[in-house]
Protein: 50S ribosomal protein L3
Organism: Candidatus Jorgensenbacteria bacterium GW2011_GWA2_45_9
Amino acid sequence: MKNESVKKIHAKKGVMTQIWNNDAVIPVTSVLYADEKEIGELKIGDKVNVSGRSKGKGFQGVVKRHGFAGGPKTHGQKNRLRAPGSIGATAPQRTIKGRKMAGRMGNERVTVRNLRVADVRQSEKTILLKGAIPGIRGARVEIRQKKKTA
């Protein structure tokens, strides 16, 4: 199957804000900065995919990293609230590959799909997208617009 992307637009993430229109508010809007040549093909209402590196969260435990429930607060427990529990049976005498454990979280490539273009401002070299995009302020992101199928 062929790649259906028209082209990639390289942009820089700005701030997240609310844009006030005459009729209503656009809830959460991400501001992106790109070259005038690149943003020429985008139109208001287009759906795009945005890829970038997520915010790094550092070393995190299993509750935050994988959504484990943790142990009970009562019934004789003292310090097992956010612990992972058992990490394997006695019989294999090793930890099975792929076991979810504590470790570094974030700072990986993430794609947010089907974000709607709220506005394109050629003079300011900005693109406004409805929704959140990955990364810190000033991070480089990649915008891909899908071809319209007839």
Notes: Strands lie at 5-20, 25-33, 47-53, 58-60, 103-105, 109-121, 126-130, 140-146. Residues 5-56+108-146 form a domain with the Elongation Factor Tu (Ef-tu); domain 3 fold (CATH 2.40.30.10). The longest strand covers residues 5-20.
